[in-house]
Amino acid sequence: MAITAAMVKDLREMTGAGMMDCKKALAETDGDMDKAVEFLREKGLAAAEKKAGRIAAEGISYATVNEEGKIAAIVEVNSETDFVAKNEKFREYVAAVAEQVKKTSAADIDAFLAEPWELDPAKTVKEELSSQIAIIGENMNIRRFEKVVAENGFVEAYIHGGGRIGVLIEMDSAVYNDGAREVAKNLAMQVAALNPKYVNESEIPADYIAHEREIIKAQTLNENTGKPENIIEKMIDGRLKKELKEICLLDQLYVKDGNLTVQKYLEEASKELGSKIAVKSFVRFETGEGIEKKEEDFAAEVAKQMGQ
């Protein structure tokens, strides 16, 4: 039976499901509207779409690495409330998403959502997400992911605050033992705590440095009117250097020993291990960063629910 746009529109209005999901449901059920509704309900898509307008700004960031320390994944999955973020079923689902990321070849979130769900290949990742939304009862969102594969070294994972922050750190190292892993874990904790943006200054884009220099220059001129130009330039250089050190991991003061920079800590650790160990890259996800949370009056929300 030919599936028309009008049929898709009618099914969408009946269920609140997405246009493409309705089209697929009708195709799977040969245009039978009742069966298509049941198809969407079974997949959890009808229930999911009704919740899709709600803001999901809570949730957890989760990081994991395989036993060999070679393949790692980090994901952020959002929920509407912190209560659900602590739910064991939700956390198990997030862990399963991370396991799939370890094996994915997807370059972006859309490609990842379109993949078959490994634990039930009859569904896509998106369909499984919709099923979980229906089961858990809140809007959820796989916001972002990253996969790290170590070539000449290993990756270590760290989760802070029950999933508030997740970190992957890739180390360049010829050894992979408890000592090397401890060094990596310490630096992953550093990344979680002090939120550096780059490993070292050579990674900082030139336009970023130029932009920050202009801001510091304006601040310095406003605060030091009348001072000679050469003095002003030295002050600008000093402030810029200090700022860049704060955003570069290797230049930061090591959190476990304020007498050392991270670079010095790595040099000492290399001596103890008898082999050079260095940071190659890191990824840091903080749950909900950059998401505007919708603030609503609780009484008004209850009244709205009762009105429905």
From TrEMBL:
<comment type="similarity">
    <text>Belongs to the EF-Ts family.</text>
</comment>
<feature type="domain" description="Translation elongation factor EFTs/EF1B dimerisation">
    <location>
        <begin position="72"/>
        <end position="289"/>
    </location>
</feature>
<comment type="function">
    <text>Associates with the EF-Tu.GDP complex and induces the exchange of GDP to GTP. It remains bound to the aminoacyl-tRNA.EF-Tu.GTP complex up to the GTP hydrolysis stage on the ribosome.</text>
</comment>
<dbReference type="InterPro" id="IPR001816">
    <property type="entry name" value="Transl_elong_EFTs/EF1B"/>
</dbReference>
<dbReference type="InterPro" id="IPR009060">
    <property type="entry name" value="UBA-like_sf"/>
</dbReference>
<keyword id="KW-0251">Elongation factor</keyword>
<keyword id="KW-0648">Protein biosynthesis</keyword>
<keyword id="KW-0963">Cytoplasm</keyword>
<protein>
    <recommendedName>
        <fullName>Elongation factor Ts</fullName>
    </recommendedName>
</protein>
<dbReference type="GO" id="GO:0003746">
    <property type="term" value="F:translation elongation factor activity"/>
</dbReference>
<dbReference type="GO" id="GO:0005737">
    <property type="term" value="C:cytoplasm"/>
</dbReference>
<dbReference type="InterPro" id="IPR014039">
    <property type="entry name" value="Transl_elong_EFTs/EF1B_dimer"/>
</dbReference>
<feature type="region of interest" description="Involved in Mg(2+) ion dislocation from EF-Tu">
    <location>
        <begin position="81"/>
        <end position="84"/>
    </location>
</feature>
<dbReference type="InterPro" id="IPR036402">
    <property type="entry name" value="EF-Ts_dimer_sf"/>
</dbReference>
<dbReference type="InterPro" id="IPR018101">
    <property type="entry name" value="Transl_elong_Ts_CS"/>
</dbReference>
<dbReference type="Pfam" id="PF00889">
    <property type="entry name" value="EF_TS"/>
</dbReference>
